[in-house]
Amino acid sequence: MFPRFLQARRFQILHRFNGFFRHNSKADFDSARAETGTLMVVDFFATWCGPCKAIAPQVVKMSSTYPSARFFKIDVDEVPEVAQELSIRAMPTFVLFKDGQEVATVVGANPTALEAAIKQHV
């Protein structure tokens, strides 16, 4: 899904690829969550997670369908403090934020539920 240069263990710059931003630090995440007026869709995933890989192409399509929403990916193994803060227990988990507040959570590779949540809050 991501080119090899985005798969590096650590990088400092927030990269955008296929409509997604990818965070590699809690500071990046906190900064993005503080933005107001935009729906933030956060995909908590792991590189070893089969369902995460299965739903990824559909989420990429959603990022094109809903350009006013900002889509983010957080690897739970690289940024565990964010996953712990939000009590992420399964992958994939999608958490939607608006104006810094959590407005919806979708657990599992369920594109229908994810799109319904996005439509409700966009």
TrEMBL record:
Disulphide bonds annotated for this chain are: C49-C52
Q: Where is this site: Deprotonates C-terminal active site Cys?
A: D43
Gene Ontology molecular function, alphabetical: protein-disulfide reductase activity
Site (Contributes to redox potential value): give the residues.
G50, P51
Q: Where is the Thioredoxin domain?
A: 2-122
PROSITE patterns to which the protein is assigned, alphabetical:
THIOREDOXIN_1 (PS00194), THIOREDOXIN_2 (PS51352)
| Keywords from the named record | Disulfide bond, Redox-active center
Which family would the database say this protein is a member of?
Belongs to the thioredoxin family.
Tell me what this protein is called. Thioredoxin
Q: Which organism is it from?
A: Aureobasidium pullulans
